[in-house]
Amino acid sequence: QVQLVESGGGLVQAGGSLRLSCAASGRTLSIYVMGWFRQAPGKEREFVAAIKWSSDRTKYADSVKGRFTISRDNSRNTVYLQMNSLKPEDTAVYFCAADARRRFVITTSPNDYDFWGQGTQVTVSS
C-alpha cells in the first residue's frame, strides 16, 4: 500500500501562485507515475499533470501548460505542483495519485491510478 498526503492548498487571488506538495509513504518503490488531478463542484475529476517516478518525463493537461510545473524529490518521496498565473477556473479540490501498474506510460485517466490522497482545496478569487 501507498499512502499519499497533500498539502499547500489555500485561497489566492487571480494571477497568484501556490505550490502543492504530496508526500508518499509505504511501498513507494512500487510507484511508476505520480499525478495530480482536480475536481470542481459538479464536475468530473480531471487530469492536471503527472511525472514518472524514475525519470523527468512529464505530461500536462492543455489547460495548465505553461502555468503549472510538476516536479519530484525522490529523496523526500514528495511530488510538487507549482501553480502560477492562477485563474478562477483553477478552483477545485486537488488530489495526488499514484500509478503502481503502468511502468512505461503516463495515463490521464483517474481510473488508472491506484492510490489517492485526501485532497487539498485551491480557491482562486477574481
Written overview of the protein:
By secondary structure, this protein is mainly β. It has strands at 2-7, 10-13, 18-26, 33-39, 46-52, 58-60, 68-73, 78-83, 92-99, 115-116, 120-125. The strands form two sheets. Strands 2, 4, 5, 6, 9, 10 and 11 form a seven-stranded mixed beta sheet that branches. A four-stranded antiparallel beta sheet has the order 1-3-8-7, with no helix packed on it. The chain starts with a strand and ends with a strand. 33% of the residues are buried. The model has no long low-confidence stretch (mean pLDDT 96).
| DSSP strand count | 11
- Beta content comes to over 45%
- What gyration radius follows from the Cα positions, in whole Å? 13 Å
Order of helices and strands: EEEEEEEEEEE
Mean pLDDT: 96
Question: How would a textbook summarize the main sheet?
Answer: 7 strands, mixed
Helix content: under 10%
Low-confidence stretches: none
